[in-house]
Amino acid sequence: MSTARTALETEEHEALRAAVAALGKRYGRDYMTTVIREGKHTDELWAEAAKLGYLGVNLPEEYGGGGGGMAELSIVLEELGAAGSPLLMMIVSPAICGTVIARFGTEEQKRTWLPGLADGSLTMAFGITEPDAGSNSHRITTTARRDGDDWVLTGRKVFVSGVDIADATLIVGRTEDARSGKLKPCLFIVPREAPGFGRNQIDMELHAPEKQFELVLDDVRLPANALVGDEDAGLLQLFAGLNPERIMTAAFGIGMGRFALSRAVEYARTRQVWKEPIGSHQAIAHPLATAHIDLELSRLMMQKAARLYDEGDDIGAGEAANMAKYAAGEACVKAVDQAVHTLGGNGLTREYGLASLITASRVARIAPVSREMILNYVSHQSLGLPKSY
Q1: pLDDT by residue (tens digit) across 290-318?
Q2: For residues 145 and 188, what is the distance between their CA atoms, to the nearest angstrom?
């Protein structure tokens, strides 16, 4: 199945796509389903991707990374997803946490974390969502107060991916502004074994190697250097991490959609019930063609968002990243749905590996921000319409 890429991507990008696709093909969907069934983690694929330099392709060269940006990292995740083996923690560890530390961390934080995030030996989770805040980040109640030179964190987080395998979690808390008395967002690095840092696994219908957790921070005491960067730049730092998160979620959705579509196209090309293969019938062919078009359009917006972000245009990247995430989520769900429908009963069997994607594809619509909140963003920020809240 052809995928239009030339003219928009450099030769280096095309070579990266081909190399990552080859790695993904060696693992494939069977590897992922086996890992999930056995309750394991994608350690082998993670280690090999790291060894080849793919996990840290966006991180600075002076700290062991590839010196690229979101354009390169999104290619890696998309191609692994298109092979059926997406690495969800790529969204969190190198994209969100690695980017925030690289842009805003102290020199000590960069030396401590970036080389490990780049070579895969260290992993970091990201905690922002709270039980009573949902999409409203202004209602975050996790607070940090000073106690001498230390920080003390108290609060709860939910739907935090991979805390069990992460060496630390980048927690979004709020500190009191001494001048105004208002709470402002700040980011803290919380080690996994920090006293008072508890986690409970959430029982999910979604089957994935990466588990979801609720976190409880019960007076977690942290040294002064746990604060990432400048206390007054918390909001800027937060959005510097959220834009890559949306770009990478788009890559996640596009990759999954491409995998499902490729399975459906292969089936439609060879499945013969009457005289001709079922793919010769427009009722089968046209919906698959539409799914392909939607995925290609989503990639264009993702590429735009990645380029704007890598060029330092945070505002422009914010708009494009939200649009890319929205478009990719919709395209992914439709591609998976059409793929399952094309295979009929076979689409629900374990053999073809599509049925589990019915649930998984919803992730791109729901997380890290719902499609409705993106429509709110576009309504207010892009169109200038009045807010409803």
Answers
A1: 999 999 999 999 999 999 999 999 999 99
A2: 12
Q: Residue 77 in contact with residue 252, Cβ under 8 Å? A: yes
The token pair at 222 is: 């942290």
Q: How many angstroms separate the CA atoms of 5 and 153, rounded?
A: 46
Q: What residues contact 141, with CB distance under 8 A and at least 6 apart?
A: 130, 132, 133, 155, 156, 174
The pTM is what? 0.94
Torsion of CA 8, 11, 14, 18, to 10 degrees: 170
Question: Can you tell me the distance from the alpha carbon of 37 to that of 67, in angstroms, rounded to the nearest whole number?
Answer: 36
Q: DSSP for 137-190, please give it.
A: GGG---EEEEETTEEEEEEEEEEEETTTT-SEEEEEEEEE-TTT--EEEEEEEE
Which residue in this structure is represented by tokens 């290609």?
A: 296
* pLDDT, tens only, 57-116: 999 999 999 999 999 999 999 999 999 999 999 999 999 999 999 999 999 999 999 999
* Beta carbons of 261 and 295 less than 8 angstroms apart: yes
- pLDDT tens per residue, range 106-160: 999 999 999 999 999 999 999 999 988 766 666 789 999 999 999 999 999 999 9
* Token pair for 87: 């690495």
Query: 124 pairs with which residues across the strands?
Result: 168
Determine the Cα–Cα distance for residues 87 and 81; give it in Å rounded to an integer: 8
Residue 154, beta-bridge partner list: 143
Measuring CA to CA, which residue among 169, 177, 172 is closest to residue 143?
Answer: 172
